[in-house]
Amino acid sequence: MTSEYPLVPKEQYELAKRDIVNLYLEQIRPVWRARTLIDRVRQLIPVDLSSACQRLLNAAIHDLREKVSTAGIDIAQQVAKENKLPPIERAEDVEEYSTARLLDLCYKMGILNRTEWRKLQRAYDIRRDLEHEDDQYQAGLEDCVYIFTTCIEIVLAHDPVQLLRVTDVKEVIEQPSPFVPGSQLLEDYRRAPQVRQEEIGRFLMSSALDSTKPEIIRRNCVELMRYIATATPPQVNIALASDLGKRVGRNLDIPHAKVAFACGALPYLRQGLVLDFYQRQLREMETIGYKWQSHSQHSELLETLEDVGALENCPPTLLRPLIKWFILAYVGEPGYGYSGRSVFYSNTAAPIIQRLFQNSSKQVFDIVRDLANDKEIRVAIGRSKPVAQRFELLLDMEPQITNTDLIQESEIA
After folding, report:
1. What is the reported pTM?
2. Which helix or strand (DSSP H or E) is residue 334 part of?
3. Of the N and C termini of the chain, which has fewer Cβ atoms inside 10 Å?
4. How far is Cα 196 from Cα 127, in angstroms, rounded to an integer?
5. Nearest CA to 165 among 298, 72, 65?
């Protein structure tokens, strides 16, 4: 009986292996392709493919050692200490790292992501089989393809990455103009190890709170913190919150609250600090009042709340009175006299409140609907149709649930 898939003759099989591995060798970046180690790999392919695989992995490991040095011995030292790896004091210490430990170091430094780290570990396991069991185990096509693709696509085809340093961030914030974000900066920050992200966060917090620095630099620090917050892992936010908590002691003031929100640390501060802060803000809101006659004081008051994520970070016990104040300020009161306005409301408060509600969750609008039965709000919106219509405008700001949202919720459930 003939097979649907005929066996490939040994000669063609060997040629196929050589063609595949030579094709991958062309993807190695020029600076490495010219080295004698890669020449040795080329020479070994026709006669001993197992040895060629071992040499290529050796080249990848050597390249990783160079990339660790390029990224910075200082950060390697910190990462090694944080993750209980062999200590690093100088560049020569990296040369003494075993292959397994070097892969761990590169992963923790951000030179490799988790998937790349796991693939290189598997390639290393294959190489050990080839090295120690030559009489029992010879490299097959699948082994060669895996080692060559892994070592070249993950390591040898890519230039070294200069990890983001604090000095790089310092150059950005000290520009004599407002901070302009760049995608490369965010990507460099995302790839930086946790210790470097914490170092950058502490530097930005300290600079933003330093009253001796020019206002443009302090604003740039806050803007940069907001920009990189999307790429900051929770572990870094927790560490920054711990540092910030030590700075503020028992009183979270406005500058520290703004910085905590900008860097993503506010939710991780002691809840008592956040509660006291919001209670003070609410007392000031009640003192100033929501009526349009106080519009000159509303701007600074509400911008402060916006800069700390008013509805996002407000403690649950204070969320209802906060939303009630916002509603009464937004709907206003019936117009009178010869002004030509059907509703009098604070022109400074209304746009800020609108932004806050447009970026709010369903929980916030559940409270808004429930507050429609509150006596004070019921009286306010019952005074005239235009005032009631402004309340409806608030309800219309609720984000609409799309089919995609429903699918995602069902998948989570």
Report:
1. 0.70
2. strand 333-334
3. N
4. 33
5. 72
pLDDT tens by residue, 42-76? 888 777 777 888 888 989 999 999 899 888 888 88
Q: Do residues 272 and 222 make contact, with C-beta atoms less than 8 angstroms apart?
A: no
**Angle, helix 49-71 to helix 73-82, in steps of 10 degrees:** 100
Cα 289 from chain centroid?
A: 39
Residues ≥6 apart with Cβ < 8 Å to 92: none
Q: Which of 136, 128, 82, 129 is nearest to 109 (CA)?
A: 82
pLDDT at 196: 86
Burial class (CB in 10 A: 0-12, 13-18, 19+), 202: middle
**pLDDT tens digits for 353-404?**
999 998 888 889 999 999 999 999 999 999 899 999 999 999 998 876 544 4
Distance between CA 226 and CA 220 in Å, rounded? 10
Distances (CA, A) of 34 to 18, 25, 30, 37: 19, 11, 6, 9
Residue 211, SS3?
A: coil
User: Please, which contacts does 377-383 make with residues 24 or more away whose CB atoms are closer than 8 Å?
Assistant: 377/324, 377/327, 377/328, 377/331, 380/328, 380/331, 380/333, 381/331, 383/333, 383/334
Q: For the stretch 318-340, what's the b/e string if a residue is b when 16 or more beta carbons lie within 10 angstroms of its beta carbon? A: ebebbbbbbbbbbbbeebeeeee
The two structure tokens encoding residue 287: 């003192």
Q: 345-356, pLDDT tens digit by residue?
A: 999 999 999 999
Q: Give the pLDDT confidence score for residue 410 in this predicted structure.
A: 43
For the chain, counts of helices (H) and of strands (E): 24, 2
